[in-house]
Queue: 2 jobs
Job 1
Amino acid sequence: MDNRIKWGIIGLGKIANKFAEDLKLSKNAILYGVASRNLDKARSFGERYGSIAYFDSYRELAEHPEIDVVYVATPHAFHFENTMMCLKNDKAVLCEKPMGMDVVEVRKMVEEAKSRNLFLMEGLWTRFIPATEKLMELLEEKTIGEVIAVRADFGFKGDGNLNSRVYDKELGGGSLLDIGIYPIYLSLLALGVPTNMKAMARMTETNVDSHCTMLFDYGNSAKAILESTIEADTPTEAYIYGNKGTIRLHSRFHHTRKMTLTQEEEKKTIDIPYVGNGYFHEIEEVNKCLLEGETESMKLPLGSSLELMTLIDRVKKEIGLRYDDENND
Ligand SMILES: NC(=O)c1ccc[n+]([C@@H]2O[C@H](COP(=O)([O-])OP(=O)(O)OC[C@H]3O[C@@H](n4cnc5c(N)ncnc54)[C@H](OP(=O)(O)O)[C@@H]3O)[C@@H](O)[C@H]2O)c1
């Protein structure tokens, strides 16, 4: 009997291509269906990655009885609508980050999944990258003592095309939701939820943030200094400072393959490879959960996605970033 998990993908853009390459590396999965708004695109994507079926409607894929789990890879603004449609058709969902445009959306998605006993997870691949697993181990063992600060940036120079996904407000544009989510997630992993925060941003003509700087405060103890930008190629590194040492996650820290651990005079750089483009590890987590009948990942529980989005909403409020039909919580 074929026990492989049958995947569907909706929204066949940049990330869907990288994801589909990694899906081919999994022995526990097959690509069953792909859906685009355009039939030719769906057909050629399907042929490239060996999909059994292809559709020119997201709904058709969501309703297909053979598909177990759908990877939602559309722009942020559609994550809620697309995920809800899949859940309502009894499909498990791996939804790209950020899971929704605000915590109200994320909460509704979580409630829908729970009420139907369906698996749901945010596509935060960082959590499953082997170097992140190693980081979690080191923090758990207090290898660098108590964490006193996190410093992380993520920046790239955008193409300036105001109609593209990262600038277009209607698609959920801006640096915070697209890449600021990674430094924020790292701070959550290392330090939890801050008590206070300050954030400042520069806005684009389209009125989304092009540069966002954040300072998180954890009482009279740790601090996090975080930054995201679509205006410049920044180092995209992270440092976690403890009272007994430092961990450096080399560029790009959110899927790094190299970590440097410094303790007193000793400095050690470790290579920690990952499989494929790095998405393989989150794919295997989803397969494992589905094969074991779990409805959420222990490593990336839905509570983390709710915390993350709540934190992002706090930053949005600080910088005056509002999306048009944003929910008021
Ligand atoms: N985990 C990661 O490393 C990572 C990296 C990049 C992006 N992402 C996330 O993945 C999502 C997609 O990013 P991407 O870079 O792949 O974007 P993209 O290249 O623009 O692709 C998005 C796809 O969504 C579909 N879509 C549906 N409605 C659309 C609309 N109104 N306008 C444009 N596209 C629409 C399109 O697919 P069809 O034409 O086939 O319908 C499009 O190709 C984002 O939420 C982003 O945060 C994650």
Note: The radius of gyration is 20 Å.
Job 2
Amino acid sequence: MSKSIKIGLFGFGVVGQGLYNVLKQTTSINATINKICVKDKSKSRNVDSNLITFDKNDILNNPDIDIIVELIDNADEAYEIVKTALKNKKSVVSANKKMIAEHLEEFYDLQKEHGVSLLYEGAACGSIPIIRNLEEYYDNDLLTSIETICNGTTNYILTKMSEEGLEYSEALAGAQKSGFAESNPRLDVMAFDPKYKIAILLAHAFGLFVHEKDVFNFGISNVSNFDFQYAAKNNASIKLIAGAYKKDNVVKAYVIPKFIVASNMFYNVKNEFNAVQLEAAFSDKQFFYGKGAGAFPTASAVLADISALHYQYKYEYKKHFSDTSISFSNDVVLNVYIRYKEKSQLEKLEFESIDEQHTINQTNYIIAKVKLKSLIKNDVNEWQDFFVAAF
Ligand SMILES: NC(=O)c1ccc[n+]([C@@H]2O[C@H](COP(=O)([O-])OP(=O)(O)OC[C@H]3O[C@@H](n4cnc5c(N)ncnc54)[C@H](OP(=O)(O)O)[C@@H]3O)[C@@H](O)[C@H]2O)c1
């Protein structure tokens, strides 16, 4: 039997406790948690008190600990922990998409410099094994696009609006009540969370380190029943899609609500579920579907990473070296529906064409070809009474 892996765990919230329970229930992996570092001294913990520490150095400088699993909810503090761990030559598993998307290139350098590994399958699409698949399986295939519904909160809200005719505020309140949305849902509903995930996936799909700040995100906080009525008339629903598309060695990536017709596989991805669709030259379309969040689904991805560290698995970021001719660009023209309040909003944007212009019951919308760069320049994610969705 292989040597037992001794884990130092940061965070004992939803995912940390999920991992603790999953490790107790599985015999497939020989690993034990040696220490758990948490923050709040006043909380009672349903775990042996000898395991708990409030001092990160009890894990970071502990020679008995083989690997570090970082599952805290603060990206800046997580960054310090992960950086120190890698410098101390400890391999790390994390599910912190914000932190990874913000520092991926630096982490890549640190892994190389210190000969250790940082794995983060749980950071993108929870239980769906997409990162290692992109790393290993699609290495020699001609991947042309990756699209994903990777935010359960927004998918839950959009499903309730589409199927039950709820207003946005009602659907959000329902999502919060059912535990699918945070009390401060900004990172989800403004589409920052899926932007972090597609930024991470870009490194493994196309070998590109793109800072998350350079990827456009437009969320669902302004979506209305009017937009769903328009979608229904076109036999479609609205889904928040994070996508990356390669053509002639240029990759374009953005997160935007999209009209998804009933024949599209994403149409039936409902509520909190996630999905990924890859398209490659010879294999054509492939579809992955599963749970993108939650204690056990996320812990299962973390567990798979811990297991991979058993055999010294590392992401090699092979595509980063093998095809250096690929570049990232926001030079895109999108086919869109735009609902707007003031004409002055449209005047700030750049269009290739405005193909239709309508006003129904005092609500204005256009069908147009808009330059993505003009949406980015105007920070339209922050505009009131403005909604854009792509076809
Ligand atoms: N929840 C999900 O379904 C899900 C899915 C995919 C990825 N993730 C990612 O997984 C990570 C954890 O999420 P979660 O939902 O488990 O969070 P959570 O339930 O809010 O728990 C966060 C934990 O982090 C601890 N913590 C915060 N700052 C700390 C610090 N400086 N040092 C030590 N411990 C600290 C907290 O300690 P106290 O207990 O003392 O407050 C708490 O135990 C996040 O990066 C999240 O984005 C979550």
Note: The pocket of NAP is lined by residues 10-16, 37-40, 43, 71-74, 77, 95-97, 122, 126, 293-294, 298 (CB under 6 Å).
